[in-house]
Amino acid sequence: MCTLEKRGRIFILTIKGSDEHRLNPTLFDAIQSALHRVRAESASSSALITTAQGKFFSNGYDLAWAGTSTARRELMNSKLQSLVTDLISLPIPTIAAVSGHASAAGFILALSHDYILMRSDRGFLYMSELDIKLVIPPWFIALVECKIGSPMARRAVVLKAAKITAKQAVELGIIDSAHDSADETVDSAVRLGEELAKRGWDGHVYGQNRMRLFAKVLDAIALHTTESTQTRSRMLPLHKQARYQAHDRTLVVVLTMAKITAKQAVELGIIDSAHDSVDETVDSAVRLGKELARRGWDGHVYSQNCMRLFAKVLDEIALDTTASTHTQTQSWM
């Protein structure tokens, strides 16, 4: 299923074969076994590269194996959570050399690495859940939020189910670099791994810092594991983020109270496009609406995925409403 090769200070984990590398218990166990070896044998001056043979990095869960069995789906979810937790806690830098399509859970596997390099001659990144009528788990969303900084990029991934090429992924800030072939992708990953390994960072410190950087993901996994049957209102994040983050566009809008033109708003990533007149704006909106409507997405699934993407907003509204009610109650006492 997979092999683990050591080249000097670099571990290379390769998913073998020319199939779609669908994630099932057998493949999960093989990858985790390799990670356990890496954890046992690595030094502070090491790095891990994960790649795959063939046209696919991974095409997600093995849905044929799962069939209609809820127990099998839950088993796959549990094993993916365990694998992602292992990658986040691994005491060395990790690099995904994406050699082909990475879809759904396969995309999540790639995002779980510190760096992502991707071949540009074949393959795309694709969160397919919307197209196959599945609601995305909250912890998937937490990982997307941690690894994809642009709200527009997150929307393309979650609410548009876009098939993103390597070039587009670089432009959106999802991956670090694109390369002409699978071999060049792996070679570049090895060079990056060597560069990182030379830093000689303390492995324990590196792993702890990564776990703190991905605390929201680990919290979401813990909530999914221990409270999967609870209602959403009881699944508030364990660590609330500040209401306003110091992104450039937030500083421009909130702190300077700038009057932003359409052109500036495009450059800042606040809006999608600018048009010459009201009529052209409406016409373009109609064309986009028709394009989205043709996808035929399930409305319930779309709204659930949207609510999960904007969970922090809903949480803040709920907290603000609760605080206001408490204040009003006190004022009447």
UniProtKB/TrEMBL annotation:
Keyword flag Lipid metabolism: yes
Top EC category: isomerase
Pfam families: ECH_1 (PF00378)
Pathway: Lipid metabolism; fatty acid beta-oxidation
Transferase as UniProt keyword: no
EC number: 5.3.3.8
Catalytic activities: a (3Z)-enoyl-CoA = a 4-saturated (2E)-enoyl-CoA; a (3E)-enoyl-CoA = a 4-saturated (2E)-enoyl-CoA
GO terms for biological process, alphabetical: fatty acid beta-oxidation
One GO CC term on file: peroxisome
Keywords: Lipid metabolism
InterPro entries: ClpP/crotonase-like_dom_sf, Enoyl-CoA_hydra/iso
Coiled-coil residue windows: none
Gene Ontology MF term list: delta(3)-delta(2)-enoyl-CoA isomerase activity
CDD domains on file: crotonase-like (cd06558)
Family: Belongs to the enoyl-CoA hydratase/isomerase family.
Identification of the protein by name: Delta(3)-Delta(2)-enoyl-CoA isomerase
Organism the protein comes from: Lithocarpus litseifolius
